[in-house]
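This part of the workshop introduces the protein records we will be handling. A record pairs a protein's sequence with a compact description of its fold. As an example, a complete record with its sequence and its structure tokens follows.

_____
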Amino acid sequence: MRNRRSGRALNKNRFELPNDVALHVEKVDKRFILERKKWYRYIFSLFKNEPTKYFQALEGVTFEVGRGEVIGLIGLNGSGKSTLASLLAGHLAPTSGNIRRNGVASLLAINSGMKPNLTGIENIRLKLLLMDFKPAEIKRRVRSIVEFTELHDFIYQPLKHYSSGMRAKLGFAIAVQTDPDILIIDEALSVGDQTFYQKCLQEIERFKQEGKTIFFVSHAISQIREISDRVAWIHYGQMKMLGNTEEVCLEYSKFIHHFNKKSKPERLREQQEMMNSQKRNLTSRQKMYRKTNLWQQLISFSTILLILIISAWQMFQN
């Protein structure tokens, strides 16, 4: 626990966020390269003026969240909600922009960080070990997590035999018992039973009272309305709206109603057009930066190769 506390203090001092601010996101872009080339093709691409195709998953996302807030994230499939959730948790790094956290973030998604061949109890211990808990603390928390999951004897079965609801129970129990400052829930509560969902709501309310911050990703507008203080509408990589829950949910419901009235070919065509607009070519400035970066990688690779050749020659001489 000492490392986690010191990590929090370092994070806070480094970014100098106010105490009442949990997270600050500033002009965040996230791009994924669509063409993966083998290492030797990068050498030839240095001398060619070929644009690199990429997918703009997020563009210019900026917002700030206070302590104790519950923020809902809504949007169509492929809009970038899960990408944003992974960025907020630190599982992905932004291509550009800054994400500043005032504390430790934890992502709860089905199968997130879980090993399918390990049992439920082994996954719990592994997660706690990776978070640097001491053996005595792990033993105490394992007991609390097992009781919260209500999985009974299934806790000793491999995770690959679990249903999606059982995995969600295990993931949520681990997340809340490790006491993160920022909890990000990505569609994990949509697969559980109603009894466990109400239990989760009680824990979310407890987190709010303790000043924890929660991001809730869901397609269920009813859940978003029930849980969230504010809602962010992500529309194909851009922040379309961020504000009062009822206001944003009403506008999103109107959009969904209008979208669903279209025929299936029209909906698919519109989605494809929006996704194609996110597929772009690198600009000349970005290509220049990419070539400079590739030259640096080539020099590093050549240096390592030279060291290996010299070492092999010395071994041969000996």
